[in-house]
Amino acid sequence: MTVVKNICCIGAGYVGGPTCAVLAYKCPDIKVTIVDLSEARIAAWNSSHLPIYEPGLDEVVFECRGKNLFFSTDVDAAIQEADLIFVSVNTPTKKTGMGAGMAADLAYVESATRRIAQVAQSSKIVVEKSTVPCRTAQSMRTILDANSTPEIHFDILSNPEFLAEGTAIKDLLNPDRVLIGALQTESGIEAQNALVDVYTHWVPKDRVITTNLWSSELSKLAANAMLAQRISSINALSAICEATGADVDEVAFACGKDTRLGSKFLKASVGFGGSCFQKDILNLVYLSRQLNLPEVADYWQQVVTMNEYQKSRFVRHIISTLFNTITNKKIAVLGFAFKKDTGDTRESAAITLIKDFMQENARVAVYDPKVEAEQIYMDLAEPDVEKKVTICASAYEAAEGADAVVIVTEWDEFRDDQLDYTKIYAGMNKPAFLFDGRLLVDAAKLRKIGFKVSVIGKNELA
Ligand code: NAD
Fold first, then answer.
1. Given CA atoms 162, 165, 167, 170 in this order, what sign does their dihedral have?
2. H or E stretch including 210?
3. Whose CA is nearest to atom 17 of ligand 1?
4. For this chain's UniProt record, which GO biological process terms are given (predicted)?
5. Which of 270, 379, 415, 422 has its C-alpha lying 20 to 30 A from 95's C-alpha?
């Protein structure tokens, strides 16, 4: 039976870093080396200021780093030493569609696989950790097989990651499930068992699911598509709530009490963001079109369309409430990360909203507790952005002289029991508008202060 003693992870990003840090933390008998092409990223992982923010991550990394956890740019050496290699590189959506929708760009997966094939000097278990279209393992296999010899054999596993940013360490320490897919051959199953053994260092055996390779690859896309679909469903209902006087929180609560539905992921908002949901659905859409299943493709595409609609609906509502023009008005945007407890801004709704505000000639002030100014300007990528958008050190500074405050990220510090909204109100232009895109504040309480409040999914007149 194969026993894994040395692991390499290619890609030190939001997934590779935390995942393999926890693995090292829970498996002190295994040496774990996380490698990346980016020298800056590796230097940050080796410093006291880690490149990503996740609650609990510092503790895990600082406990193991230098003992059995290493960060390096020497990709080849780490590949050569390892028995098992996670491929945890980025799989962004391609910029061009080529007629069938937007495919995942697998260039990084291919290049990491080629590297493994070229430098391996002994047999390896290669594990897809990145989220990939169904049957990507087939392409990886072709590349690896072309380089295998009687002495060097490669097995491929699929082990998609289900962590959510913001709760990554908690999710990794206590996962709902770990999914490991393998080819159903003798050697595939032996490799699968070896990875099961690694995870059962800390994950109860009944939470480790083993499947065939293709089920595992598709399950990751399916899980993200269904999570995003729930958000788009409640967001679609939020529009009906605003028009009718139904309250989206009450509707979500009433629906969620049905045990067949469950209450999680039924929070209306300005729309989902993050690097995964949209990308993975577009992936599914593309796959469906390639498989000549256009109705299936259209079905999933609608989840993304609804998400775009929710963002533009929110912006239109803000503009019409502010007397149909925001030219030269100051809008304070609270939150830039795509959700709370992360500094990640990829596909954040804030980017779309702020670009729309700039288009309408508003002056924008942004405050986010974890996102640096440099990142915000990079994401907005507009000419003269620094003249149009000010980055502030607090919510109070952002709201000073503002006509409207817009809550975009649900950071706890923006709650009405944490932020002093009386002070915010005092500094604003009157009438002072507040738009809550996250159902975070008690509208009645803020109306008493004097704010004119609009909350997604709630009708002010109800
Ligand atoms: P990321 O962009 O943060 O990290 C990827 C890293 O891989 C980068 O640092 C990049 O420099 C490195 N890299 C790319 N090619 C390389 C190569 N050939 N050799 C060495 N390093 C290389 O991406 P991420 O958010 O960690 O996502 C990785 C994968 O995990 C994606 O497929 C994503 O869909 C999936 N995923 C992400 C999340 C999430 O919450 N971010 C959750 C589950 C799954």
1. positive
2. strand 208-212
3. 112
4. glycosaminoglycan biosynthetic process; UDP-glucuronate biosynthetic process
5. 270
Which CATH number does 6-203 carry?
3.40.50.720
Question: Measuring from each residue's beta carbon to the nearest atom of ligand 1, which residues come in under 6 Å?
Answer: 10-16, 35-38, 41, 75, 88-91, 108, 111-112, 130-131, 161, 163, 165, 275-276
State the pTM of this model: 0.94
Report which of 357, 356, 392 is spatially closest to residue 373, judged by C-alpha positions: 392
As to burial, measured by CB atoms within 10 angstroms (0-12 exposed, 13-18 middle, 19+ buried), residue 440 is buried
Domain boundaries, the chain: 6-203, 245-462
Q: Which residues pair with 367 in a beta bridge?
A: 334
Annotated binding site for substrate: 161-165, 220-224, 260, 267-273, 338-339, 438
State whether CATH 3.40.50.720 applies to domain 245-462. yes
Class of residue 122 by CB neighbours under 10 A (exposed 0-12, middle 13-18, buried 19+): exposed
Q: What is the mean pLDDT of each run of 10 residues along the chain (462 residues)?
A: 95 98 98 98 98 96 98 98 98 73 87 97 97 94 91 96 96 98 97 98 98 97 97 98 96 98 96 94 93 97 98 98 98 98 96 97 97 96 92 98 98 98 98 98 97 94 52
**Unique residue bearing structure tokens 């799989």:** 91
Name the residue among 428, 458, 429, 430 with its Cα closest to residue 443. 458
414 CA to centre of own chain = 21
Do 245-462 and 6-203 have the same topology in CATH?
A: yes
